[in-house]
Amino acid sequence: MPRAKGFISFEGIEGSGKSTQVKLLAEYLRSKGHDVLETAEPGGTWIGNKIRELLLEPLNHMDPMAELLLYYSDRAQHVREVIYPALLRNTIVITDRFTDSTAAYQGHARGIDLSIIDTLNELVVPDMKPYLTFLLDLDVEAGLIRNRNARKEDRFELETIAFHNRVRQGFHQIAKEEPERVKVVNASQSKEEVTREIIRIIEEVWR
Ligand code: TMP
């Protein structure tokens, strides 16, 4: 399948406001008459939600390679069951996280060689790259505070500030390498300002 213009991902550290912005962008696009599917990783399917529980349970001491492969099990199911069929129907798909999260968390932050992640991408999701990715960028401590206020506490929220800073730097590195696809949005602005910027970018890119 050629790269679908309607495949959009949101990326960012914990607490960067991705899920809110996914919803707001979906509402906007629907108001313009588009069919839109909102989805997320890990999760997005019944099997994916089971995998999500394993991945995020704070008491699990998970081997980094086991963790990596679980994200790809989730992704294989998600792409085949949800994303690919929707794109074939010409539905716009907005996913809260995709392969850039794996490069940032398991690659840049955990230290797994990025060439292993590239190989998994070729095996599991060949030709499935988002057309446009919004990287909601926020200071790590501000993001973690937002999440604590929302009482979120999973295995990743318990990681060190240094870990989350490596995640953030990893996302910046990806944005630097692929500026056409990955658009960095300052997530410390108000919710409304962030949405306005996202809509401006999407209209420019699709024009
Ligand atoms: P969420 O809080 O955005 O739902 O994501 C759950 C956690 O999973 C989050 O801490 C980031 C992490 N994650 C990875 O480490 N690698 C991945 O490939 C994905 C999709 C998420």
Overall geometry comes to globular
**Global Rg:** 16 Å
**Mean of all residue-level pLDDT scores:** 94
End-to-end CA span: 22 Å
CATH topology: Rossmann fold
Domain tally? 1
Q: Could you estimate the helical fraction of the residues in percent?
A: 55-70%
Helix/strand/pairing category: alpha/beta
Name the helix and strand elements from N-terminus to C-terminus, one letter apiece: EHEHHEHHEHHEH
What can be said about the biggest beta sheet?
Answer: 5 strands, parallel
Please count the helical segments: 8
Ligand names: thymidine-5'-phosphate
Roughly what fraction of the amino acids lie in strands? 5-15%
- Assign the CATH superfamily: P-loop containing nucleotide triphosphate hydrolases
Report the CATH architecture: 3-Layer(aba) Sandwich
Which parts are unreliable, with pLDDT below 50 for 5 consecutive residues or more?
Answer: none
Can you offer a commentary on this structure?
The longest helix is centred in the middle third of the chain and has 25 residues, at 64-88. The protein is of the alpha/beta class. It has helices spanning 18-31, 46-56, 64-88, 99-109, 114-124, 140-149, 161-177, 191-206; strands at 7-12, 36-40, 92-96, 132-137, 182-186. It has one domain: P-loop containing nucleotide triphosphate hydrolases (Rossmann fold, 3-Layer(aba) Sandwich). Helix 1 (18-31) packs across helix 8, helix 3 packs parallel to helix 5 and helix 4 (99-109) crosses helix 7. It has eight helices and five strands; from the N terminus they run E-H-E-H-H-E-H-H-E-H-H-E-H. The relative contact order is 0.20. The chain has a five-stranded parallel β-sheet, with helices on both faces. The structure holds thymidine-5'-phosphate. Thymidine-5'-phosphate binds at residues 14, 41-42, 71, 97, 101-102, 105-106, 156. Thymidine-5'-phosphate binds next to helix 4.
